[in-house]
């Protein structure tokens, strides 16, 4: 069911500083900040040869990553995103296996304009998993 690793997301306390670090010290190809109000974050994507890094910064008062940054003030790996062919079939299979799908359970449109869902970290060894339909 899960396919390629689409991105690894890192929540950061300073988005501009983190982007600059990846651009200069790590010599990576760094995109421009993208506000995603529907998700409560501003994101910066870093293109790598085999996947992407998604830098995350809270946007708005009820950002879902605010709590994470309060607990991890220096930042940290926030989630992994796997690609799936059919996100509704994936969701239904996960629910039938007892996994929790976060939010309403219906996919939202993610940063790439594709449907995404999130699975509770407590159900997957402490890792927050995002699924993105390709
Ligand atoms: C533009 C879209 C973009 C894209 O790629 O397309 C995105 O990726 S948007 C990314 C931001 N959106 C989300 O993360 C949505 C899903 N996340 C959530 O709904 C929340 O973050 C949630 C429910 C996972 C955690 O919320 P919160 O921290 O406020 O809740 P709790 O404090 O009750 O946490 C419960 C429990 O989970 C642990 N936790 C929280 N976040 C993570 C994490 N990222 N990885 C692993 N574990 C996490 C937290 O420490 C609590 O554990 P406990 O042992 O009970 O303390
Ligand atoms: Co993501």
UniProtKB/TrEMBL annotation:
Gene3D superfamilies: 2,3-Dihydroxybiphenyl 1,2-Dioxygenase, domain 1. The keyword Ligase does not apply. It is an enzyme of class 5 (isomerase). GO terms for molecular function: methylmalonyl-CoA epimerase activity. Pfam families: Glyoxalase_4. The keyword Isomerase applies. Its EC number is 5.1.99.1. SUPFAM superfamilies: Glyoxalase/Bleomycin resistance protein/Dihydroxybiphenyl dioxygenase. Keywords: Isomerase, Metal-binding. InterPro entries: Glyas_Bleomycin-R_OHBP_Dase (IPR029068), MeMalonyl-CoA_epimerase (IPR017515), MMCE/EMCE_epimerase (IPR051785), VOC_core (IPR037523). Residues 4-134 form the VOC domain. Belongs to the methylmalonyl-CoA epimerase family. NCBIfam families: metmalonyl_epim (TIGR03081). This is Methylmalonyl-CoA epimerase. It comes from Paracoccus nototheniae. The gene is mce.
């Amino acid at each position: 069911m899960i396919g390629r690793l689409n991105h690894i997301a890192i929540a950061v306390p300073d988005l501009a500083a983190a982007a600059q670090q990846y651009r200069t010290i790590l010599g990576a190809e760094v995109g421009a900040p993208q506000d995603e109000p529907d998700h409560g974050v501003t994101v910066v994507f870093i293109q790598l040869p085999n996947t992407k890094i998604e830098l995350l910064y809270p946007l708005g008062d009820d950002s879902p990553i605010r709590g994470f940054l309060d607990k991890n003030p220096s930042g940290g790996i926030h989630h992994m995103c796997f690609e799936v062919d059919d996100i509704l079939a994936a969701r239904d299979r996960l629910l039938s296996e007892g996994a929790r799908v976060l939010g309403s359970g219906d996919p939202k449109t993610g940063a790439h304009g594709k449907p995404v869902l999130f699975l509770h970290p407590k159900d997957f060894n402490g890792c927050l998993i995002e699924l993105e339909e390709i």
